[in-house]
Amino acid sequence: MKIFYYVKTTWRVSLCTLLTAILLILSGCTGLPVSGTIGGQTIQTRVDSEVARYYLANYLAGKRTDPLLDTRIDRVYQQANGSLPNREDLKS
What we know:
Elements: H1 2-27, E1 32-38, E2 41-47, H2 50-57, H3 67-80, H4 87-91
Antiparallel strand pairs: 1-2
């Protein structure tokens, strides 16, 4: 009986470890891949929205190709009054 309990417990722990590892790996692969330059430093990363992707890849480089997104980003800059925008500013 103890052997059965040991196998069952070990299998449960192994399954939990495997599922945790899979979730960690998948969470690192989420988002939209993007490359851009900030302060002369080129970065490659993943972002959580198309607006963030556009901002990093195009807006900061001066490639204003989407008037709607350009207007939204400009509005955030104007509302921030020289400070960093907060979460609520970025949601608008």
